[in-house]
Every structure is written in structure tokens, then in C-alpha cells.
Amino acid sequence: MHEFLAQLVNGISLGGIYALIAIGYTMVYGIAELINFAHGDVYTLGTFVALAIFGALGISGELHGIALVVDSGLALIGAAVCCGLIGMAMERLAYRRLRNAPRLAPLITAIGVSFILQNLMQLWKGSAPIPFPAVLPNPRFDLGPVSITAQQIAVVALAVAAMFALQIVVTRTRTGAAMRAVAQDRQAASLMGVDVDRTIAITFLIAGLLAGVGGFVSGVYYQSTWFLNGFSAGLKAFTAAVLGGIGNIAGAMLGGFLIGIIESFATWLIGGQWSNVTVFAILILVLVLKPSGLLGERVPEKV
Amino acid sequence: MVYAIAAIVIAFAVAIDRVRTKRTKLLLLAGLAVLLAVAPRLGGSDASVNALVDIGIYVVLALGLNVVVGFAGLLDLGYAAFFAIGAYTYAMLASPQFGLHLPFWVLLFLAAALASLCGIVLGAPTLRLRGDYLAIVTLGFGEIVPQVFQNLTKYTGGPNGIGALDVPTFFGIPFGQSALPYYYVTLAAIALTLLLTNNLRASRLGRAWMAIREDQLAAAHAGIDTTRSKLAAFALGASFSGFAGVIFAAKLSLVSPDLFQFQVSVLVVSMLVLGGMGNIPGVVVGAVLLGLLNGTVLPQLDTIATDVLHVHADLTQASFLIYGVILVGLMLFRPEGLLPDRERRAEMHAAPNEVV
């Protein structure tokens, strides 16, 4: 029972990170009908940028009090903004021209962009795993049978806060309304005076911001990263988005937490070396059995 | 020598692509075959023959994937998985691993059959999915296969893989250490692949693939069994990959999971994109160009940079940057590739309001 709860807590923290990435996949897919393959690498870039900011501030160990708030705030915002801008740049330079191209063209482009980002990060920091400073003091809190670390609380709190902010943007603002309109019918939205290009650009910006937050959080949580980190994290997050129902933001959050929990239990029960296999097997099963996901609607293929 | 032969192959491929009559094409192809057959006799080190074999294996892979991606329009991002299945088939059945020593020639075809069987098992439930989902499923499969080989340490040697594979024999004569026998095997494999894929293209099935690629709904309404045709493309494409895997494993005398990562699948897709999906001469050109870049040009540039310019450069580390730029650049500016397929080009340049 102890182990069960401990793994559950682990899975939820892990899931918070996947959920942050999965939202980016799902939003971009919902609005631009593109699997932004490079999204996982944007997330890794977030960790790298946060690392660089900590490096520039000369931070290599635990932070306390006001320094904790200001310095990690700086790293968080820096990572998020940088990833948001990269996302927008990607859309502008690589994807926008292909919006009306056959479906596979933008996907192939996205793989190319992913390779470029991965390789640039590899050239920047090398191929070996890179340590991330343990900035967060990490006391344990014992809640009955289960103990939770401060990092786990921070991960989940940040993830939930970011999702909450996103929900407000999407449901309460004009931009959010425009996004929903473009997702539903791009042409009709454009006829109603929605600036489609701008809306899609903002979607990429938001997806990037969240990936950046995810990157920062994962750095703090794992205290290590490497240039290929985003490849499997991105695939798992994509699985989460599909599991939740692609295009559905709440679904991506749910899927993210579920995948995190599943991965953590797979690691516990059948061994860490099988966790990736388990997640990808789930991806294949979901796509085969219920391609619309848990919360998605059945969308017939457009002709 | 590697450069000279690559240039000759590219020149012939372009010529074959350009000439109209079938007879001229065949004549050119025969000429190329003779040239390639005598080429290693005209000098060149074993290392350069080895480099040519590597390029040749990429040509087989690219031609095989072309059936799936180019002909049928299904983006397969897990093609390396079938390559791994072929290679491990040889490694497990022709090595001290289990004390089994089946002949190379039998395993070539057994591996091809096994790979296509895996293609069917994966394809049957997933081919109903729309294109981009299918791509991700194949990617997931491509991740699972090497991971499973890595995890089943008892049977596959785990991360270290299986070594000391049998040296193939030809009527009792062992291949030995030289790369030359593999050169001729690869050449024969390319010839066979060219023959099969070219015939497939013109067949009833090939026309069905083209119809599906252009408009699946219309194809279905014209009476084409789309799922079955797609499955055939998947299985046939996979078989070439399994076939190539055996040659690859036998030459290297070693298999390990890290040889079959996602990057291999994307490299082969890049070859198709660069050369021109669907067009056989184009695919050969793409495979030769990127195979050359991957195996010969980048390592040599590294040596030149270190020895002559005295700067430490590691351009092989930047290879994926280069593939990435090739993929993005081509998709943006010349989506049909260097030597495009006529129908494919028309699709890529369809009027925007035609394609949703």
C-alpha cells in the first residue's frame, strides 16, 4: 500500500509535466491540424534555457527565501518566453507556407525542425546528460502513509496553475474565442473577421510557453537533462493528448496525468526498461480501439 | 572511388529518368550494371568497397520504403524496425547465440517473410487510421522493437547485442573478411528490388496505390479494397527492409539495438524526400546522395578540418542538423524532390483550394 501510494504520487508529478507538453500538442493539432513533432524539443529547450539562466546568475545550489522566488521566477519566465517565441518562429518560418499542402508535408517538415533543434542543443551542450542545479529545497512531508517531496508539490502546483491560466485564456478572452472558432472551421472564422494567421501564431506561442514551463519544471524535478530528452517525453505527451482526445485541452491534462501514472506503475511493476514499451503500446491500442480518445468527439476524416 | 561511383550512379539515374523510351532506359540500366560489376576490379581499397556496400544497403531500404511512402502515400516512421527484425533474424539463427547456423541465403528470404509478417500484424489494425496518426503509430512501433530487443537480454544479448555472426558462404566458399562479396550481394539485392518495385508500380496493385494516395475516398468508391491494398504496400515494403537487414548484419557480423533507432527511419525518409517520392530513379539518387553524405563526406570533412585546418570540428555530430535542413528546405521550396515523380509533382502543386 505504501509503495502503491508512493508510485501514485510519483506518477502524478510525472503526469504534470506530460500534461503541460500534451496541451501544446493538442492545441496545435486542434487549430492547425498539425502534429508538431518538434514540440518535445521545444520542451527540452525550456530546460536548457532555464539552465543557462541559472548559470548566468551563478546559481548552482539550493535557493532560499526571496532569492528562490526571484531567481527561479526569472528562469521560469525566461524559459517560457524563449520557448513561446521559438514556437512562433517555427510556425512562421516552417509551417505557415504549408498550411494548404498535402497532409504529410507539414509532418515531414516538423520532423526536420525537430532534428534541427535537437542537433543545435547537442552542439550547444554536448551529448552527455547535463546536471541541473537542485535549486529547490526538498523537505519531505509525511501525509499519513505517504510522503511527498516539496519538488513534487511544486511540479503539480505549477502545472495546475499553468493549466488554469490557459483555461481562462481559452474560455474568457476574445483571443480564446478566436482560437475556438478557428479550430472549428478555419474558413468560416476567417469570414467572420477572425485573423487566422494571428490566431494560429498565438496558439503556437501559448503551446511554447507551456512547454517552456514544462521544461523548467522537469529540470527542477529530475535535476538532469540531455538534448534528446524531448524525443521520448514528446512521444509520451503526444500519447497523452491522443488518449485524452486530440484537440481537447481538458483531455490532454487528463491524459497527461494518466500516462504519468501508468508509466510510474509500469516502472514499479514490470521494470523501468519496459515503461516506454508500455506507453507506446497504449498509444497504438488507443488509436486502434478508440481513436477519438477519452474525451474527444468522433471526427470523420475531411475530404 | 566512392565519389566516382556515386557520381556515375547519379548520372545514370538522371539519364534513365530523362529518356523516354523503354529500350533506352534498359540499355542505360544494363550499362550501369556492367560498370558497377567491374568497378571494384579497377582499384579502390576495401574500405571504399565497404562504404559502397553501406550506400547500397540504403538504396535497398529507400526503394523498399518508397513502396510504402512513395507509391501508397503512407508515411512510415518506423521502417528501421523491420530492418532490425531482419538483422536480428540473421543474428539469432546464424550465430553461436543459440548454436543455430542456418545458411545466409535461406535467411535472406526468411527474414524478408518475417518482416512482412510483422508488417501485416502492425498494419492490419492500424491502417484504417488517417495519415498522420498512422505515421505516429509506426513511429511508436519503431521505438518498441529495438527496445524489446534490448530488454530480452536472454535471447538477444541486451544492449550489447549479438556478435560473431556466421560468415556467409557461396557454394561452400566463405565470404571472408573482404567487403567485396557483400558488394556483389548488395548489387544483386538492388537489382532484385528495382525489378520488383518497378513491376509493382505498373501493376494493378500499383495503380490502386496511386489512386489511394491521391484520393482514398474516390479510390474506395471506384471499387478498390483500400485496406487490403495498403496492407500489401506495408507488407511488401517491410520485406525489403528485412532483406536488407540480413545483409547489413552479416557484413557487420554484429547487431545491437542502437543500430536501429528512429534516426535510421528518418534518414531513409529523408532520402525519399530529397530524391523524389515515388520516382524510382529519384529515390536512388536521394539514397546515394545522403548515404554518401552520411558515411563518407561528413567523416572526411572532419578529418580535413582536424588535419589541414587544425580546428577540431565534429561535423558528423551535425549530420542531423543537415538532414533537418534538407527536410524543411525541400518541403518548403521543392516538395516534389530533386527528380520528381510526374503524378506526385502534380499533387504537391495542387491548387490550394483543392486540398483541405
Describe what you observe in this structure.
The complex is a heterodimer of chains A (303) and B (356). Chain A is globular. Chain A has eleven helices and four strands. Chain A has a two-stranded antiparallel ribbon. Chain A has a two-stranded antiparallel ribbon with strand order 2-3. In chain A, helix 2 packs antiparallel against helix 3, helix 2 packs across helix 9 and helix 10 packs across helix 11. Chain A is mainly α and 303 residues long. The longest helix of chain A has 31 residues. Chain B is globular, with a radius of gyration of 20 Å. Chain B is built from 15 helices and six strands. Helix content of chain B is 71%, strand content 3%. Chain B has one domain: ABC transporter involved in vitamin B12 uptake, BtuC (Orthogonal Bundle).
List keywords for this structure.
heterodimer; A: mainly alpha; ABC transporter involved in vitamin B12 uptake, BtuC; two-stranded antiparallel sheet; 11 helices; globular; B: mainly alpha; 15 helices
Rounded average pLDDT of chain B: 87
Specify the number of helices of chain A. 11
Spans of chain A with pLDDT under 50 lasting ≥5 residues? Answer: none
Helix content of chain A: over 70%
Q: What structural class results from the helix and strand content of chain A?
A: mainly alpha
CATH-defined topology of chain A: ABC transporter involved in vitamin B12 uptake, BtuC
What is the name of the CATH class of chain B? Mainly Alpha
Report the major sheet of chain A: 2 strands, antiparallel
| Major interchain interface with per-chain residue totals | A-B, 46 and 48 residues
- Rg of chain B: 20 Å
Query: How many structural domains can be distinguished in the coordinates of chain B?
Result: 1
Number of beta strands of chain A: 4
Instruction: Using the coordinates shown, work out and report the CATH topology of chain B.
Output: ABC transporter involved in vitamin B12 uptake, BtuC
Number of domains of chain A: 1
Main beta sheet of chain B: strand number and arrangement?
2 strands, antiparallel
